[in-house]
Amino acid sequence: MATQYQHQEHLGHVVLIAAAAAIGGFLFGYDSAVINGAVVGIQRHFDVGSVEIGVVVAIALLGSALGAWFGGGLADRVGRTRSMQIAAIVFAISSIGQMLPFAIWDLGFWRLLAGVGIGMASVLGPAYIAEVSPPAYRGRLGSFQQLAIVLGIAVSQAVNYVIARQADGDVNNHLWGLQAWQWMLGACVVPALLFLLFASTIPESPRYLVMSGRTRRAREVLSEVEGDDVDLDARVSEIQNVLRTEARPTMKDLRGKALGLLPIVWIGIVLSAFQQLVGINVIFYYSSVLWQSVGIDQQSSLLISFSSSIINIVGTFIAIALVDKIGRKPLLLTGSAGMAIALGTAAWAFSHARQIGDNVRLPDPQGPIALVAANVFVLFFALSWGVVVWVLLGEMFPNRIRAAALGVAAAAQWLANWLVTVTFPAMSEWNLPLTYAMYALFAALSFLFVTKWVKETKGRRLEEMG
């Protein structure tokens, strides 16, 4: 009985540690989506067009690519927890900067800096959680990161809605000396400071402690997270042996005959690209603008955005529950089919938008149909491509190239995300139905791609991947 109690106590401790590290994922989601409620206010305040606003929204993604690029190396030099503290400080500083911009280019700079923090958090959190988690619980604890991301998205939409209500439904109205959209962006500083607090209290990763020669502290942390019944000397020796034999893969290891890369690398790149090319982040970056463009008022559009975030959370829980039961490929195929139908339906509904005086309106029943179709799209994405692509990218590559291949695939994902985000404002002004029809086409193509090229990885050991 005592042993079982101690086991539960250690598991509870590591769950708290993993949850604290996953606050980086919460910031990832929060800072990525908070711009949704502020877009209209920024556009009016600085009197800029769709191209400029697209650049300002999307520039954070270029910062994310930069942060992800050097985040892993920084973690190896100064430690996982210290790197998380740096990411939190970057978040906090960028939040204040975004809150008080004096020009559109100044706002763009702070968005870029916020993106650096996002990119760092996107690699630091999962790496830390994997290194402190007992093997038997690594998968479930690793899912904290994705769950934290979707929770961050939802909370940011709720905060935006509350602020808009305080401003009588107009984000350009003043609250306590600033416009409402400025408070939306400045509110990011609260979760940033919480991340800094928790990153300052959790223990350093045992792997980094061994790497830096602090084996006594490594034993203490291993005892905390894995229990006293573990052979601590053997675990430290195991980590030391892995570090001695571990060769960091390079781009040369990814070379192949298929357009210069190995086929499995191309599969990872295309999977990552499809995850973004279906237009999912349009919902989280621009849905407020989207619904206002077809006649829904600001306050109601923010409430709709919040409801989409809740559906995103529900879908994520479904994916976590099913990914190890029915497999990766069936979930991807289900998601692709559902997304294609939902996006096609949304495109049809938006094609019925009509100009009435100075306003655009969606008639009945196309208005409610567009709303349902958008949320069905979010649900199918969340229960499939939102979670499963990350699971596959961690499993599908051979051991010898996994780190380098995952880096290339993640870079492709950031690039595709940036491309969709920067082009949507101008494309939607040009032809909104055709824009959604294009996303529907990508969803249909993703179904064909998964059918032909993606192999099931459920139940296979990592050493079997080749």
Order of helices and strands: HHHHHHHEEHHHHHHHHHEEHHH
* Number of domain units: 2
**Number of separate helices:** 19
| Structure summary, number of beta strands | 4
Provide key terms for this protein.
Growth Hormone, Chain: A, 4 strands, 2% strand, 466 residues, 2 domains, disordered N terminus, globular, two-stranded antiparallel ribbon
What's a quick, concise take on this entry?
By secondary structure, the protein is mostly helical. It has helices at 2-21, 23-33, 35-46, 50-78, 80-99, 104-132, 138-166, 180-186, 189-199, 206-211, 215-226, 232-245, 263-277, 280-293, 298-322, 328-350, 366-382, 385-395, 402-453; strands spanning 174-175, 178-179, 354-356, 359-361. α1 crosses α7 (138-166), α3 (35-46) crosses α8 and α13 (263-277) crosses α19.
Q: How would you describe this structure to a colleague?
A:
The protein is an all-alpha fold and 466 residues long. It folds into two domains: 1-202, MFS general substrate transporter like domains (Growth Hormone, Chain: A, Up-down Bundle); 251-466, MFS general substrate transporter like domains (Growth Hormone, Chain: A), CATH 1.20.1250.20. Helix content is 77%, strand content 2%. The protein has 19 helices and four strands. The protein has a two-stranded antiparallel sheet. Strands 3-4 form a two-stranded antiparallel ribbon. Helix 1 runs antiparallel to helix 6 (104-132), helix 6 (104-132) packs antiparallel against helix 7 and helix 14 crosses helix 19 (402-453). It is globular and about 70 Å long. It starts with a helix and ends in a 13-residue tail after the last helix. Mean pLDDT is 83; it is low at 1-5.
